[in-house]
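Hi L., both proteins are below.
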Amino acid sequence: MFFFFAALIIAIACSAITIKTLVGYSDLKIFYKIPASILIILGWFAPLIMKFLSSTAILSGNLYATVSHLLYGLMGFVFILFIAIMLRDIVWYIIYGIAKMTGRSGWHIHPKNLSLLGKANCLVVLFSIAVSIYALYHGYKQPEVRELTFYSDKIAQDMTIAQISDLHINRATPLLRIRQLVNDINMLNPDVIVLTGDTIDDNVVLIEEHLKALKELSAPFGVYSIMGNHEFYNDIYASKRVLNDHGLTFLFNGGLHINNTNVFIAGIPDLGTMYERVNLWRTLGKSEKKDYKILLSHTPNIIDSLSPGLVDLVLSGHTHGGQIFPFHLFVKQANRYLSGQFRVNGTDLFVSRGAGTWGPAMRLFAPADIALIHLKKKNKQPAS
């Protein structure tokens, strides 16, 4: 319910601002103003429209996927357009203010000059289209592989872990993309594969073929997954059952030793939705002091509540690295650790930008990634 009202308020406010700024202050004929306004409204209301369509049987199959891609693509475009308009107007008024103070102002650069404003609107729309195409390209592009190495004297044998996060699989996700991702991960030949939440973003019954593709993930020491907030939204118990049924060990306040080594891997529920059910002592209860402990937590902010030495490495996702700039700035307010590698109170943290997208299949200055993590004994660390 909170999501609905928050999305509704944002959609109404942003629609009104975008329409008034782009269309209201122009000399466009009503014939153009009406369809432009409708497209803007559809873009901002895309999440609510898709929420309604996904909960009904009005659309299905390829038609549902097409509508989803179009609406969310429009949402991404109007977001970029909104930011572009705001930035343009800020710069424009600053320039006009400076010109006014120096006695060089005039109607030829006035922000309310409709002729000039019409040309500026045309340019900002073309710019937004170009940026949207660029963002779509990077949204559909296969994730890049990021290699990291962590050293510890606790590690008895070298090990590689492939981390993939935030797939957000739903009925509109191209099945071919999931199959290609699975193939790319398997080609890395990791010892272990971990999925750090938001793997499922739909009714599990409607994405059965996608989940069958995940079953092809292969690693000699196992494939492990944890809960993200979107598994919670789409029935955590169904998600847990179906992931286990497809060969992924679902870690839920629990852990185990990898292949009888002293590398211990554990997973907890998502902090944002089920914090009261996170139990770190139970999660790490089977570990020993000598173990190299890896904690899978969808939300990276868990790092701030960990006692020094409790775990050695935390692997997270959730943030998408901001996904579409400048949304990074807002995501950063909710998540101190946006993406990349950190060390906090003696514990290593890696935050993946994720391999999928939520909403628009766009990425702008936040490329998708798969992490290939090398664990090595400390005495093998190269001299700096």
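That was the first. Here is the second:
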Amino acid sequence: MWIVVAAFVVVTVVRSHQVGIPLRDPSGSVFRLRLLLSVLLALPLALVDAGVRVGRSNWTVRRFGAVLRRRWPLDRAILVFTGLLAYHIVYVCYRNLKSWVAFKHPQDDHLLSVDKALFAGHSPAVLLHDLLGEHLAAHVLTVIYQSFGYLVPVSFVAALIFANKIREGYVFLSSALWIWIIGLGSYYLIPSVGPFWSASKEFAGLDHTKVTATQAKYMAERAQVLAHPGASDSFASISAFASLHVGFTCLILLMVRYYGFPRATKVMTVYLIAVMISTIYLGWHFVVDDAAGLLLAYVAVLLGRLTIYGRRGRPT
């Protein structure tokens, strides 16, 4: 896995040299703060894990301590920390490379034409607005869309903590690294901004939400990068194709199924559908972006398993 991380770092450094912009971690929020929060999240999750394994009926402080010591020898703790470190190194590289996609000419018109061709000349976003309305649904789908920001950091940390074997947790972690990497590749393959920008009139009737403010903020950041690429605060955060909102959510669904949790798989399936609807309704993504996100998730999980287990695959 570290070979994959190192290769991605090299790609990032080379691209940084090409565009003449150094790697950035704005206010420490992309790397340092996220890494710290992941480590802090791992600590209470480890206590929960030990408590669950002891069980209510047999719970005593002594048994709890024994399970905690058995579950967390030094080598496992080191593997969890270094795994979190690897994830955040890839993530900060991904965010920097994503910022520099702004220098590519957006292909939104092509994606918009594909969407309309799929829906007999109609915009899928407008169809959703007509079906769900433009007021209450906007607020509900905004909450669903923003919940992604909480689900992602919890998911890969929980996989490392709760997995019976650390290697199984690393399958999730490795898959997560791969989806950022191949997702970044899709940004450069088909640069785009999103329907809210290329077909802004279709979203003018929606209630003002936090998503509306975020979209305006992202466009201002993109304009800043284009106007003043060398400025220390120039850092763009927007790309549409493929949808990694959908991709990472689907990855979590696939991993929940991989770990053998049928009820959680059903819940995640419903949540994935809701996320896909929200991305189209709110104008973040085209339908083809979401479809590509599903494909990327599948490929990322295959690569994640291959990275950790090799060709021999997961043991029975």
